[in-house]
C-alpha cells in the first residue's frame, strides 16, 4: 500500500496537500486543470521534491530517506525518458544495473524485454532514430526490467496521436498486469481515465483529493471537475 | 537526495576550488607580504604608464580595425570565407614568440618591408619600442576583436535586414538603424577584452619593447627577479600588476564581454543594402588587407624556418618533447579541475557560486604575478630552477582554467537540466553518472577546452622565463634563446616546430572530442 500521510509539498505561493492511501496493484488516474499540482504530486512521491510536512510510505515504511532511484517505484516523465547518447540496449539495461555492468544473462533479458515491447533487434539504435511511440516502448521495456511495485506516469505519451497513445496504454496495462504494479497516471483526457483506471484522483487548487471510483466521479462530477471538463 | 552521489559530485569540486583559491590568494599574500612598503621608483611608474598606454592603444586600434573587417565578412559571401573565419581563431592559440618572429620577418631590420623601402630609396623603419609592442598586440588580438564584432553582426536577426530592404534602406540607413546600435553594445566589451590581454603581456613586450622606456610591468617583474634579484621590488611590482588586472576584470564584469570563440560564425546573412560596386571593392580590399596582415608574418616564418628543421640541434628536440609532455599534463589538470568545479557550480547555491568564483579567479592574476609569488615562496626550500617545470605546468593550468570552465559550463547545465532527473530516477549515481551520463554529453566542449589548454601551455613563454635554468628549457624558451644568440634561422626553424606542436596538440584533442557520438 502506498500511503500519503498528511503530505504537503512546496511552500509560499504554491503548496499541494494529499492525505490518503492507495492499495497495492491499483490503477489510478490523476486528473485536474494545468498548474493544479498533478506533476508535483508524482515528483513528491518519486522523491524529487521534499515533503514540507507529512510523509510518503510504502507498506508502512517511510520513503523519506530514500533517494529517487532507491524508492520502490519507476517514473516516466513527459519527455527525456531515454539518454540520447546511449543505445536502446544500454538505456534499457540501466534498469538492471545503474552502472551498466551487465552479465551475459542481463543482455539476454534486455533483448527479451525489447522483443516484448515490439523492438526486437533494435538493441543498437539510438533514441534519435526512433519514433515517439518506439521511444515510449523502450522506456516501458526498462520499467519491465526494473519490476518495481509502483509505476508513476507523468503524461509520457501526451505528445503521441490518439491511436498510438491507446496502444501505449494497452502496453502499460499488460505490464501492470504482469508485474502487479500500482499505477498512478497523470492525464488530461477523461477517456484515458475511464478506459484505464478504475480509480481517479482529482487535483485542484493545491489539493489532491482521495481516489474515488472513476465511473461514479464522471457520472456526477463535482463543480471543479465540471469546470475543467467544460460541462 | 542521493547522498553518496552528492559527495562524489561535490568533493572534487571543493578540492579543486580550494587548491585554486590557495594558489591565487596564497601567491597574492606572499607578494603583498614581501612588497615592503611598496616603494616604487620612477622607472617602475614609467613601466605602469607604459603598460596602460600600450594596452589602451592596442585595444583601440584592434577594435577600430576590426569594425570594417567584421562588416565586410558579415555582408559578403565568397569562396574561403568559412576557412578565413575559422583561421581568425588561430592567433589566440599561436605562441606569442612565433608571432613576434613572424612580425620581425616582415617589419624587422632585415624584413620584407625594409627591403622594399630600400629598393625605392627610402630610409628603413625599425620595429622596437612602443609601436612594435602595439603592432604585435594588434596582430595577435585583431582576429579576436573581429570575431567578437562579427558575433555582434550575426546577432542581428536576418529578418531585420529583410525589413530594412523592404523599407528601402541604403547602407547609410542600415548603419544608422541596425549596425551602430549593435556596435555601441559590442565594442566596449571587445575593447576591454583586448585591453585585459595586453595588460598582462609579457613575451611580446619583452622582445619588442626597447629598454627602460618601453617596459611593461610584467617585464619589469621579470627583470627585478632575474637581473637585479630584488625580490621586494618584484613583489611591489606584482602587487601593482595585480591591482591593474583585478581592476580591469571587475570593470569587464560590469560590461558584457562578447564571446570570441565558439561556432556559428560562418553563417552568411543575405543582404540587400550592400550590392553597389564601390562597397564591394571596399569590402574586398579590407578582407585582402586583413588577410595579408595576418597571414604574411606566419607564412614568412614557415617558409624561412622549414629548411632548417632537419638541422635543429638536439637540445631543441629535447625541449620540444619536454614541452609536449608539460602541455598534456597541464591540459589534463585543466580538464579535471574544470569538470570538478563545473559539477559543483551547476548545482547552484552558495557552494556552486563559490566554485564558479574560484574558477574565475585566475582571470585577475597574470603569469608573472603568480610566478613572482611562487618564486618567493619556493626560494627558502628549493632552488627555483629545480621546480621550474612543475610550477610552469601548474601556472599554465590555472591560467587556462577560466576558459575551460566557461566552455564546458553551458553543456554541463544542459545535462543537469535534461538528464539528471532521469539519472536519479534510475539510481545512477557517483562515478557511473559521470561515466554514463555526464562525460558522453561533454566530449565536444571537453575536447575543445583541452585543445585550447594544451596549445596555450605549449606556447607559453611567461613564468618559465622566471624559473628556467640551463638544462630544463621549454621549446618557447629555446626559440627565445636562439633569437637572443642571433641565430635567427635556427630560431625560425624551432618556431615552425613550436607552431606545429601547438596546433597539432589542439587539433588532436579537439578531434578526440569531436566525434559525433550522440546521433541526437
Automatic annotation (TrEMBL), chain A:
Cell inner membrane found in the keyword field: yes
UniProt KW Cell inner membrane keyword: yes
Highest rank taxon of the organism: Bacteria
Record-annotated ABC transporter domain positions: 2-230
Molecular function via GO: ATP binding
Record's keyword terms, sorted: ATP-binding, Cell inner membrane, Cell membrane, Membrane, Nucleotide-binding, Translocase, Transport
Listed InterPro entries: AAA+_ATPase (IPR003593), ABC_SmlMolc_Importer (IPR050093), ABC_transporter-like_ATP-bd (IPR003439), P-loop_NTPase (IPR027417)
PROSITE patterns per record: ABC_TRANSPORTER_2
UniProt protein name: ATP-binding cassette domain-containing protein
Organism of origin: Ruixingdingia sedimenti
From TrEMBL, chain B:
CDD domains recorded: TM_PBP2
Membrane topology value: Multi-pass membrane protein
Classification via InterPro entries: MetI-like, MetI-like_sf
Protein name: Thiamine/thiamine pyrophosphate ABC transporter permease ThiP
This protein's UniProt keywords: Cell inner membrane, Cell membrane, Membrane, Transmembrane, Transmembrane helix, Transport
Residues annotated as transmembrane: 12-35, 47-71, 83-108, 128-150, 186-208, 234-257, 278-303, 323-346, 358-381, 387-409, 446-469, 489-508
Lineage top rank: taxon: Bacteria
Subcellular location, principal: membrane
Gene3D superfamilies registered for this protein in UniProt: MetI-like
Residue stretches making up the ABC transmembrane type-1 domain: 48-250, 320-509
Subcellular location: Cell inner membrane
Amino acid at each position: 500500500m502506498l500511503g500519503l500521510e498528511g503530505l504537503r509539498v512546496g511552500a509560499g505561493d504554491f503548496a499541494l496537500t494529499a492525505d490518503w492511501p492507495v492499495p497495492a496493484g491499483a490503477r489510478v488516474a490523476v486528473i485536474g486543470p494545468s498548474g493544479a499540482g498533478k506533476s508535483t504530486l508524482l515528483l513528491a512521491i518519486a522523491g524529487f521534491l521534499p515533503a514540507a510536512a507529512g510523509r510518503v510510505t510504502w507498506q508502512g515504511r517511510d520513503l523519506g530517506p530514500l533517494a529517487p532511484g532507491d524508492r520502490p517505484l519507476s517514473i516516466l516523465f513527459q519527455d527525456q525518458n531515454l539518454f540520447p547518447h546511449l543505445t536502446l540496449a544500454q538505456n534499457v539495461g540501466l534498469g538492471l544495473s545503474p552502472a551498466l555492468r551487465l552479465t551475459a544473462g542481463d543482455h539476454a533479458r534486455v533483448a527479451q524485454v525489447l522483443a516484448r515491447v515490439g523492438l526486437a533487434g533494435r538493441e543498437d539504435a539510438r533514441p534519435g532514430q526512433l519514433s515517439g511511440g518506439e521511444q515510449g516502448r523502450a522506456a516501458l521495456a526498462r520499467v519491465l526490467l526494473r519490476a518495481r511495485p509502483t509505476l508513476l506516469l507523468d503524461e509520457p505519451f501526451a505528445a503521441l496521436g490518439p491511436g498510438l497513445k491507446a496502444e501505449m496504454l494497452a502496453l502499460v496495462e499488460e505490464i501492470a498486469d504482469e508485474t502487479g504494479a500500482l499505477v498512478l497516471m497523470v492525464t488530461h483526457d477523461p477517456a484515458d481515465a475511464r478506459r484505464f483506471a478504475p480509480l481517479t484522483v482529482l487535483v485542484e487548487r493545491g489539493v489532491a483529493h482521495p481516489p474515488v471510483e472513476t465511473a461514479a466521479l464522471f457520472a456526477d462530477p463535482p463543480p471543479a471537475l465540471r469546470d475543467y471538463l467544460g460541462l | 537526495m542521493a547522498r553518496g552521489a552528492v559527495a562524489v559530485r561535490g568533493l572534487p569540486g571543493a578540492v579543486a576550488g580550494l587548491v585554486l583559491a590557495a594558489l591565487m590568494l596564497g601567491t597574492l599574500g606572499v607578494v603583498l607580504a614581501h612588497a615592503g612598503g611598496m616603494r616604487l621608483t620612477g622607472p617602475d611608474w614609467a613601466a605602469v604608464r607604459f603598460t596602460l598606454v600600450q594596452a589602451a592603444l592596442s585595444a583601440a586600434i584592434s577594435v577600430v580595425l576590426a569594425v570594417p573587417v567584421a562588416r565586410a565578412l558579415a555582408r559578403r559571401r565568397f569562396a574561403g570565407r568559412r576557412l578565413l573565419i575559422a583561421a581568425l581563431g588561430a592567433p589566440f592559440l599561436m605562441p606569442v614568440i612565433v608571432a613576434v618572429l613572424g612580425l620581425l620577418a616582415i617589419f624587422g631590420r632585415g624584413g620584407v618591408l625594409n627591403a622594399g623601402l630600400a629598393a625605392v630609396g627610402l630610409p628603413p623603419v625599425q620595429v622596437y619600442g612602443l609601436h612594435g609592442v602595439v603592432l604585435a598586440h594588434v596582430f595577435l588580438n585583431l582576429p579576436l576583436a573581429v570575431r567578437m564584432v562579427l558575433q555582434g553582426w550575426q546577432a542581428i536577426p536576418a529578418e531585420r535586414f529583410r525589413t530594412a530592404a523592404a523599407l528601402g534602406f541604403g547602407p547609410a540607413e542600415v548603419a544608422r538603424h541596425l549596425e551602430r546600435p549593435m556596435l555601441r553594445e559590442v565594442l566596449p566589451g571587445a575593447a576591454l577584452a583586448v585591453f585585459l590581454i595586453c595588460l598582462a603581456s609579457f613575451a611580446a613586450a619583452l622582445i619588442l619593447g626597447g629598454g627602460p622606456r618601453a617596459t611593461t610591468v610584467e617585464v619589469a617583474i621579470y627583470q627585478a627577479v632575474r637581473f637585479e634579484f630584488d625580490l621586494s621590488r618584484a613583489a611591489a611590482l606584482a602587487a601593482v600588476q595585480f591591482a591593474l588586472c583585478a581592476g580591469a576584470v571587475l570593470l569587464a564584469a560590469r560590461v558584457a564581454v562578447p564571446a570570441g570563440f565558439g561556432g556559428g560564425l560562418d553563417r552568411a546573412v543575405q543582404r540587400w543594402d550592400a550590392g553597389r560596386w564601390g562597397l564591394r571593392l571596399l569590402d574586398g580590399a579590407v578582407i585582402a588587407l586583413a588577410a595579408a596582415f595576418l597571414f604574411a608574418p606566419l607564412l614568412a616564418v614557415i617558409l624561412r624556418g622549414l629548411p632548417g628543421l632537419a638541422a635543429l640541434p638536439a637540445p631543441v628536440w629535447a625541449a620540444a618533447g619536454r614541452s609536449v609532455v608539460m602541455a598534456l599534463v597541464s591540459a589534463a589538470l585543466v580538464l579535471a579541475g574544470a569538470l570538478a568545479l563545473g559539477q559543483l557550480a551547476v548545482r547552484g547555491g552558495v557552494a556552486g557560486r563559490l566554485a564558479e568564483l574560484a574558477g574565475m579567479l585566475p582571470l585577475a592574476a597574470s603569469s608573472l604575478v603568480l610566478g613572482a609569488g611562487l618564486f618567493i615562496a619556493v626560494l627558502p626550500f628549493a632552488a627555483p630552477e629545480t621546480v621550474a617545470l612543475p610550477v610552469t605546468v601548474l601556472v599554465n593550468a590555472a591560467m587556462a582554467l577560466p576558459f575551460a570552465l566557461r566552455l564546458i559550463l553551458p553543456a554541463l547545465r544542459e545535462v543537469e537540466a535534461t538528464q539528471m532527473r532521469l539519472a536519479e530516477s534510475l539510481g545512477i549515481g557517483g562515478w557511473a553518472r559521470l561515466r554514463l551520463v555526464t562525460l558522453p554529453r561533454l566530449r565536444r566542449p571537453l575536447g575543445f577546452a583541452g585543445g585550447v589548454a594544451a596549445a596555450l601551455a605549449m606556447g607559453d613563454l611567461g613564468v618559465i622565463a622566471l624559473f628556467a635554468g640551463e638544462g630544463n628549457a621549454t621549446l618557447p624558451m629555446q626559440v627565445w634563446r636562439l633569437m637572443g644568440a642571433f641565430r635567427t634561422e635556427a630560431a625560425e626553424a624551432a618556431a615552425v616546430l613550436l607552431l606545429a606542436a601547438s596546433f597539432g596538440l589542439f587539433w588532436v584533442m579537439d578531434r578526440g572530442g569531436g566525434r559525433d557520438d550522440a546521433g541526437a
